[in-house]
Design goal:
The chain is mainly beta. It folds into four domains: 146 residues, Immunoglobulin-like, CATH 2.60.40; 125 residues, TonB-dependent receptor, plug domain (Ferric Hydroxamate Uptake Protein, Chain A, domain 1); 102 residues, no CATH class; 312 residues, TonB-dependent receptor, beta-barrel domain (Maltoporin, Chain A), CATH 2.40.170.20. The strands form seven sheets. The protein has a 16-stranded mixed sheet with strand order 3-4-1-2-21-24-25-26-27-28-29-30-31-32-33-34. The protein has a five-stranded mixed sheet with strand order 14-19-20-17-18.
Length: 740
Amino acid sequence: MKKNRESCPDLVIRFRMGSGMKMISFGLLFFLFVIPYYRASAGGVIFGGDVGSVAEFLSKSRPGNLADAPLMQQERTIRGKVSDKNGIAIPGATVVVKGTTVGTVTDASGNFTLTVPDRANVLDFSFVGMKPQEVIIGTQSVFNILLEDETIGLDEVVVVGYGTVKKSDVTGALTRVTDETIQERPVQNVIQALQGKAAGIDITSNIKPGELPDIVIRGTRSISASNTPLYVLDGIPLAAGSMADINPNDIASVEILKDASATAIYGSRGANGVVLISTKKGMEGRVSIDYTNTFSFDHYKSLTEWMDGPDYIERWRLALMNGGQYGTEKFTNLNTPVKLGYPDPALDVSKFNLAADRTAWESVMRAYEWEGEMGGTVKMRATTAAEKELGWPDQVPVYDASKIRSYDWGADALRVGLNQHHQLSLSSGNEISKIYVSFAYLDQLGVQKDQDYNRYSLNLNGDLAPTKWIKVGASVNTALSEQNFGILPPNTSNTGSKDLYSRANDQFPYALPKDDHGFWIKNPGGNLSLWNPLIDIDQAMSNRRIGSVFANAFGEITFTPWLRYRLNFGTQYRQFRNGTWTGPNATSHLTNKPNTAGYSTNQSFAWVAENLLYFQKKIADVHDLGITLLQSAQKFRNEGVSMSGSSMIYDISKWYDIAANLNGKPDGYGTSFTENALMSYMARLNYAFLNRYLLTASGRWDGASVLARGHKWDFFPSFALAWKLQEEPFLKELNWINEF
């Protein structure tokens, strides 16, 4: 949906909305941008004039005033259909009157209707992945347009680390994902957007909102060490930040370096692959304001078929019988089946420990018929001949396993997760300066009832080129997020350290979380090692608050057409605060003590400075020579403090003011400090002969302060050759060959 100004061609406002929020969002913007006159058309609403008051707008918007508007008498309606070369309709194609902002988009059937001024001459038709097409309007009122596929040329420029090259000249293994691909799906971080879009990349989703998926590039590098790749944001390696702090809608492209020849320029840090992220920048042309929102739902689908109450009791009883623990002989001979016993309420109570949980006892005793009250005298029936052969007595209890009560613990720990993302961005630029600004809000309601996440992010990006030989720019990316991570109980031999959903699935399916009076049952089923996890939804918290700032600046001087110098400087700051709390009734007590609290905070700061010299020259029309030289310095610093306590006096303060709220001494407290530095030198040679035979060679020297004296420096070389076979004269005329 587009709302544009015809009388102000330097301003374009676009809206991309999901779900049922279109009318609400339009209403908000309607009163935000109050316009004194308007005209309605089939292709949208066109605003013009200076912003006035609401009363002024309403007075000019009466039906009587509409008749006075001269533009209403100078328009006509056109219609048509947009299809591809195979005749398949293209929904969402853009139709715009050239030189104006009057336009519309095609519907699901590829059809469009648009009211245009009589003076309109040319229509522009466009769609992502298709070649744009211009059509003269003339006196025609019906248009049937066929758009052709737009093959991305091999001259497309891609980022390779410390520079860019033509896609056709890349010698290493590289995968590129553009912003169009990233915005195809409602994702919360850029790693999610890469799933299924980049060959050789294994991405495992994380159910926790706000957590990054695990990413592995071309297989596992180490069994015990980290396999996380190096992330580089706008040319600056991330040392103190996280990709979770980056709004995916602010990303222009992602290049993934996968093999040794491509990653060697980043030294040892590139061993697990390198992910290069380029954020959006301002574009030359009119001011463009975009508002987007997306809504999505998450639903957890378990592929495990969990046993219900009757199945669980029957299999448990059978296991006891096979072990000779339920009135039967122990199974010892593989060739002699054990003679199975019969259900007995007294054995059920003792073997299943039902006396410790009255509600679970009732669930199982339902399977028996009683003469009077449950638990009194059980009804008996005569045994069959086959049962007597098993050694059963003449009469056994009347029993129907299907009457055992069942409870779906896993379902009670889950909910439907709602995700919503809103972003408002502004882009503008000319030959001298460009600017891009965006503000975004993300809210994730986790599928587990104790997890959620929200993030506010602001991105500023500007470039300035006052002369042809100098260019400067800066960007600031900030984020503030809060995450309810979900509490983890202490690790025990029976339950382990698991999240809410996993703990829920550990429960007995015949046991219930509450008794008949609505009170929580702490140990459902009577097992003192299994605690009721649903209590912890309101009685336990793990809250994380994160603030981050990424600030980069660069300056570039072009000495000659073939020689330029660039200085990059980036700083990264991230503050992480984690607060944990368990109430008086929680089952997740730290060291099994009531009213526990913990507080920890970490501050990370890093700076990176890079000096780059680029030489790029074509010699005698047959040699293409490119040389890149780098000197880089980086420093990282982290410090933290933590405290934990139990037997808190007041639970209302949660993890704050622990020392004053303790009934005794803290269980633990301490501080931490880490500092390291990295110095690097790099040289890279790119050579092409006849635009067919390619050579890339690089060497990087890294010195790290964390290594032992005498072993701080190491050298990381790489070498790659490529042959553009499609450029050979004997293959160049074959149009069915694009690239080898």
